[in-house]
Amino acid sequence: MTQPLLRAEGLSKTYEAKRGLFRAARAVQAVAELDLALDRGAALGIVGESGCGKSTLARLLLRLIPLSAGRITFDGQDITGLDEAAMRPLRRRMQLIHQNPSAALDPRLTAEDAVAEPLRIQGLATGRALRDRVAALLSEVGLPPAFLHRFPHELSGGQKQRVCIARALALEPDLLVLDEPTSALDVSVQAQILDVLDGLRARRGLAYLFISHNLAVVRQVCERVAVMYLGRIVEEGTAAEVLGTPRHPYTRALLGSVPRLAAHGIAPAAPGEPPNPASPPPGCAFHPRCPIAIPACRDAMPPLATLSDGHRLRCPRAMEVSP
Amino acid sequence: MTALLEIADYRLAFDTFDGTAQVLDGIDLTLEAGGTLGIVGETGCGKSVLARSLMALNPMPPARVVSGQIRFQGSDILAMSEREMRRLRGRAISMVFQDPASYLNPLLAIGTQMEDAIRGQDAAVGERQRPRAAARARAAELLAAVGLPEPARLLDSHPHQLSGGMRQRVLIAMALAGDPVLLVADEPTTALDVTVQAQVLALIARLVAERGLALMLITHDLGVVAAACARVAVMYAGTVVEEAPTADLLSRPLHPYARGLIAAVPDLDHPEHRPQGIAGSIPSLITPPQGCRFHPRCPIATERCRSEKPLRREILPGRSIACHHATP
After folding, report:
1. N or C: which terminus of chain B carries fewer CB neighbours within 10 A?
2. ipTM of the complex in this document
3. CB contact under 8 A, B265 and A189
4. Do B158 and B187 fall into the same domain?
């Protein structure tokens, strides 16, 4: 068996939430005992609502914030304890794409400069070779040479996101972590960016960790999907299973809440709102909103069980109550 | 029967340092009492500017009315004084916005803000302001009407103690304070999580049905329109390109832009239908394309589209398209 490109085991992140000057700090668990693996060239979607810890997870996996517990392996190498200097050569191989391309680009750099910057810093190309490489990268994401000398304010949102993607590609990474990459874009532009992302993965064998609240977008991009609720994975499996025949009641509620073009009207699929991570409910975090909860759900956090087909599910009730 | 709201040949320009942007270019729309109309379109199509026009909330200057009328219950909003407008605003027409947090004062309790709004309404229509206690009772009633539990306790809370969904419900409750006949909702669920969005859309649908409210819902999300509106108008670059019953438009869009927009939405239930982008990008409104504003991106554009602006015409009963080449 080949080893995954990226693996997290027992990954946890606890923030100390200060509660005023004289009160004791309270721990907020943003990510809890999370296991996942991403194969080379694969695309894993992370979905969930605000506060579920999906963006914290992205930052943890890239070692941008310190983790509280657990282990991260990248390409077979344990990177959990690496210091900044030891991480630097690996950073080239893992890149982050943000939601808001306007905030991610320096307003004083042209598209060409923005993409050239990482190459220049790493000393990978100069002069003519650098310019050719930058032009090739921009062309790969669908920006013709006419855009080379434009500043961010002269670009549309979709064009800016293309520049961000080209910049991330400059160092030939193995992994792109995409945090809501199309959420700030119009739907007609989103479709274009999804095409760019699909093409890149096919050509370059990139792996994607694709974070999004948009289930339909994740269904387009990813083969596998993990659903998070309050810092934990509640269901994980192939996109077809998780988003086609969901088993966890939270996944079902998420899917049931998405307004469909073909249906008139909408019925809420789950009552209430995601709980505050600072005061999570006891037992299964979803039980106060769950239509199939029983008293036992309040007593203990159910384990994330692995079913025979590799599907993971944190709900013993869902396995009892067949869909 | 006269319509509740009639927008006729409404043109609005914004004077900027770079030139005059023709932001709304001849809008014609009608909304009957109790009707629900969705306005969809992408960034910069003018949908929010149109919504704000109904409440005279666009700052003038830089905004400038070039032509047209917005008749609400027979009187032209564009001709009203600020004083007349204040009687209408929040009373006959009220509005909810995208980001509930920025429309609540973080320093004041919910109860105080609602009392102020209710008493402000009294003053705006020239009545004596009711006492705080009476305003508070009314506030509690409104919170219950939008499905918020424990209204009394909520009135003593501050905005930061509420979730996003609760804040939006509070703002909807405040919008109901003057018993409006028209609710204008500008992306009311865009900042909310999907499970909460479904709850708020169901709430809006219930209020519309129970109170006979007319609804104008501005959104970029076609699914939201499907959930809440009987009719829909699709906007592109300051013009309405198609207006139709929602189910008809979503199942069989006729205008090339409406077709492109719907084809770009990824379908959760049919992932085999790849979303298709629309080539090109939205035009500058300072130098908009001649003729049809969509022609540079349109797959079926001809010479006529480059020179002659298509007028919206009814091509099926209750369905109108602004396209030279549209066929039923």
Report:
1. N
2. 0.87
3. no
4. no
